Amino acid sequence: MKIRILLAAFALVAALPVLVAGAGAADAPKLPSGPHPMVQDVPADPMPREIVDDVKRTRNYADQPPLIPHAIRDYQLDLNVNKCLTCHDRKNSEGAQAPMISITHFQDRDGQALGAVSPRRYFCTQCHVPQTDARPITGNMFKDIDTVLRGKEGGK
Ligand code: HEC
Ligand code: HEC
Q: Which residues form the pocket of ligand 2, taking CB atoms under 6 Å from any ligand atom?
């Protein structure tokens, strides 16, 4: 008798996932499919445009790497050539009227200033990025320090 109850209980537990899956199949969750059905052949959306207006963007915090406000397409940036430095290096900034890379870019990890750009700052696009007019996929609740401080004083 006891064994039979045990077996019945076991069968129920074993069948549970199947039962749950079965119940779900009726209103199965929809796969994320974007604005068009997956089977429909639609032309690709246009590429977002690069922002190349040469306007400085506010940094969200004091030591944010500033965003690049100009085109960088096809600029060579590898072991042999650094196109960015042809305008942003100390000796080239006058000719290009480009802001010089700041002192931090000449410092090694011990804070020692070197004569040329430090190897750890050589690959500019590791930190500096251009922007496009693409609509962000998700929202963003970031608040800069001024907003946070204002919120505190105002009791918000
Ligand atoms: C032909 C010269 C030239 C080249 C090459 C160049 N820049 Fe610039 N860059 C400028 C000038 C001039 C400005 C000032 C704003 C403007 O006119 O776009 C600038 C602005 C910037 C700024 C904004 C600085 C700030 O304070 O907001 C960043 C960051 C930057 N460049 C990074 C780069 C990186 C990274 C590369 C290489 C991928 C690069 N630049 C290549 C000329 C150049
Ligand atoms: C490891 C990250 C990093 C790399 C790599 C890097 N930068 Fe920066 N850059 C920063 C940060 C952070 C700032 C802002 C604070 C500062 O000056 O250090 C900055 C500031 C700048 C500025 C503004 C300077 C000013 O005084 O307004 C320019 C221009 C710039 N970088 C260009 C470059 C170029 C060109 C390269 C490549 C040779 C480069 N950066 C590589 C992080 C980086």
A: 63, 65-66, 82, 84-85, 88, 99, 101-102, 104-105, 117, 121-124, 126-128
Model confidence at 22, pLDDT cuts 50, 70, 90, reads: very low
pTM of the model: 0.82
Residues in contact with ligand 1 by the CB-under-6-Å rule are 54, 56, 66, 68-70, 72, 75, 77, 83-84, 86-88, 96-99, 124-125, 128
Listed range (8-12, 19-23, 53-57) with the worst mean pLDDT: 19-23
Strand partners, 50: 132
CA geometry: angle 131, 136, 140, nearest 5 deg: 105
Nearest alpha-carbon partner for 97 in 88, 106, 110, 84: 88
Question: In this structure, are residues 35 and 42 in contact, taking their beta carbons and an 8 Å threshold?
Answer: no
Q: Which of 106, 102, 98, 99 is nearest to 122 (CA)?
A: 106
Q: Please report, rounded to a whole number, the percentage of residues in the chain having pLDDT higher than 70.
A: 77
Nearest to 129 by CA among 63, 77, 70: 70
Q: Which atom from ligand 1 is nearest to the alpha carbon of 56?
A: 27
Structure tokens at 81: 């050539």
